[in-house]
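To fix ideas, we quote verbatim a fold written out as C-alpha cells:
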Amino acid sequence: MKELIQLNLTEIIRKRAGSKGKWIPAGLLHALERIIRQDELNEMLRVAYPAEGSEFSKRILSHLDITVDVSGLDSLPADTPYIFASNHPLGGLDGIALVAVLGEHYGDDNVRVMVNDLLMNVSPLAGVFLPINKYGSAGARESSRLLNEALGQGKQIVMFPAGLVSRLHPGGVIKDLPWKKSFVSKAIDYGRSIVPVSFGALNSMRFYRTAKWRKKLGVKVNVEQALLPSELCKTRGKRFFIRFGTPVSPAALKAEGLSLNQIIERIYDASRSGLSEA
C-alpha cells in the first residue's frame, strides 16, 4: 500500500526556492499554510487515501458533497481520441472533476489532464496529470515531450487553453482570459478533433476582486493564486455542471480558410454557449 501523502507547503516552497529557501521566515510560511487551509486539504487527502486517479477524484467530490451534472459525453465515440478544451472556472477542482468523469468513462490509463506543475505534488493524480508551466527550458522541453508522447499513444487529452483561472471582466462578466493557440496547433498536428467543454462553476467574489485589484495596482505576481486552495474548500455542498459539446475539426476549419485565431474563437464561443444553455 502506498504511503499517505500530506501537503507541506513550507517544504514545497523551500525546495522551489533552492538555496534561498532557508531565509524565508517560518512565520510567513505558516501564515501561507493557514491561507491555503492546508489542514483541510490534508484531511481530504486522508479521506481519499489510498485511492488514485478517478477513484481518488470521486472520493474528494464525495467528501465535499459536490454534485456534478454531466451531459454530452455519451454521444462521443468511445474509441476516438480527442482534445477536450475546457474553460477554467475554479483552478484545481475543475481538473479533479474532469478526471473523475473522463476517467470513469474512458479509464484512467487513457486520460491525461494538463495542469500547472505545482499540482503534480498531488501524487494520487500524478498518473493522469501532465505538467505544464515548468520553470526553465529543460522543464518546458520535458513537458512538451510528455504531451507529444500521450498524443501519440492515443490518450484523451484535457487542456485549459486560458492557462489561468477565469477572471472578472468589465460589465461584471466572469469568463476565461484569452485562450492560447497550442491546443489547436496540437489538434492539427495529430489529426484530432476538439471537444468544447463548458464547466459551470464560480469562485467567490473575494477571489475575483483580489485579482482585479492586483492588476489595477500593477502587481505582477499572481497573488490570487494563493487563494485557490481555500476556494476549493468553499465548494462544499455545491452543484456544478459539465457540458461536452460537438467535436470540432480544426483541420477542416483551416481548410475552409479560417485563421488560427478564428478557429480558437469558434471553439471558445462553443464553450461559452454551453455555459449560457445551462
